[in-house]
Structures are given as structure tokens and as C-alpha cells.
Amino acid sequence: MSTEVDKIDWSTDPRKAKAIQAWRENPSLSNKAVAELAGVSDRTINRWRTDPEFVSCLVSESRLLLNSRLPQLYDVCVDKALKGDWRFMKLILDHIEMIEQLQRDVVAENTYIIQWNSIGTTE
Fold it and tell me: How many beta carbons lie within 10 A of that of residue 64, not counting itself?
């Protein structure tokens, strides 16, 4: 599977790709641990984390990881909610509310677009 890190030409500094790969494989690694794996100082890692291209790639990789684990996370939340943990019940209800609001927003936007498009056809 091709990922964001694979699309960028890291030939000028392949250590950046090593750093992102290390975080991809173990997101809980510290900057210092990643620096050791990439063969750079932790100051270099801190500097890279201010580089928009590096940050964008890191965020994309994090999203891929999170999306791959969402079904498992959701199952754990539902299981805990069913066992009576009110925090997980609230989390699930908040999530459902957020999804419903997104659906309402999409419907409203599509209705607006349809109305806008029909203005030109009725004249």
C-alpha cells in the first residue's frame, strides 16, 4: 500500500523517511527514540516537526493508522458502554450526535446547491 511517506522524494534526506516509518510502526515512541532510530539528534527531530512537508506526512500517516484501528476502538467503546461505563456511553452518544449534525449539514448544503442550480433553469 502506497502511503504519503512513499510519495515524497526523501533522497536529499532519507533519515526523515526513517523517522516517519518509526512513528508509523510505533506511534508512542518519543522524539529521542525516533532520533536514535533515524540516526539524528532529538534537536533535529524537533526542527523537522516544524517543517510543513514533514508534519503533513506525519499527520497523514497518523490518520492511516487511526483509520485502520477505528473498528477495534469502536468495539471497545461499545463493550464498555454496555457494561455500564457512563463515560463511554457519553462518548458514543456525542459521536452519534456529531455524525447526525454532519449529515444535516450535507443535506442543507446539497439543498442550497440544488436551489442555486434551479435559479438559472427557471428563467
Answer: 15
